[in-house]
């Protein structure tokens, strides 16, 4: 019974409770998107352990997923794909619209508020982390990504 509760906690929070101090996702949300298009996922990753790297992301029902950030080139904002996301020891990385996000390309079904997406994250040290990401409307997105509303 205890093992079942630990697995349920792992699924809900998105990190393995057997690895204290590992990078974990405290907030995860996605925005609505249409079949065949790209969708955005925003994560807040807390790293209480040693430095780690987010190496890869897979989104069930998407052809491909990658980490992007906005940068400036010649006075114009451009989206740039990142090879990996470095997360320093003790750091919290908060993805946000217009800054950083996970881009899921060529999604196979519409994402509508209330849907839950299966997402696999692969960290260098924390290993594989499976999370469920709720699709929310844009008002709820702002609320969930607000620092005051993040789980502690």
Word description of this protein:
Strand 9 and strand 10 form a beta hairpin. The strands form two sheets. Strands 1, 2, 4, 5, 7 and 8 form a six-stranded antiparallel beta sheet that branches. The chain has a four-stranded antiparallel beta sheet with strand order 6-3-9-10. With 152 residues, the protein is mainly β.
Uncertain regions spanning at least 5 consecutive residues:
1-18
Q: Rg from C-alpha positions?
A: 15 Å
Distance between the termini: 26 Å
The major sheet is characterized as: 6 strands, antiparallel
Shape: globular
Q: What are the main properties of this structure?
A:
disordered N terminus, single chain, 49% strand, mainly beta, 152 residues, 6-stranded antiparallel sheet
Secondary-structure map:
Layout: H1 2-13, E1 23-30, E2 39-47, E3 52-59, E4 62-73, E5 76-82, E6 85-87, E7 92-94, E8 100-107, E9 116-123, E10 127-134, H2 138-145
Antiparallel strand pairs: 1-2, 2-7, 2-8, 3-6, 3-9, 4-5, 4-8, 9-10
Structure at a glance:
This protein has 152 residues and is mainly β.
């Amino acid at each position: 019974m205890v093992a079942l509760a630990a697995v349920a906690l792992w699924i809900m929070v998105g990190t393995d409770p057997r690895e204290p101090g590992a990078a974990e996702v405290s907030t995860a949300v996605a925005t609505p998107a249409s079949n065949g298009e790209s969708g955005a996922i925003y994560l807040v990753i807390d790293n209480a352990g040693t430095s780690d790297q987010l190496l890869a992301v897979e989104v069930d029902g998407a052809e491909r997923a990658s980490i992007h950030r906005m940068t400036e080139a010649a006075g114009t904002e451009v989206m740039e794909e990142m090879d990996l996301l470095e997360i320093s020891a003790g750091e919290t990385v908060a993805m946000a619209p217009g800054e950083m996000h996970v881009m899921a390309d060529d999604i196979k079904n519409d994402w509508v508020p209330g849907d839950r997406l299966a997402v696999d994250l692969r960290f260098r040290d924390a290993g594989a982390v499976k999370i469920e990401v709720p699709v929310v409307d844009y008002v709820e997105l702002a609320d969930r990504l607000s620092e005051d509303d993040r789980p502690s």
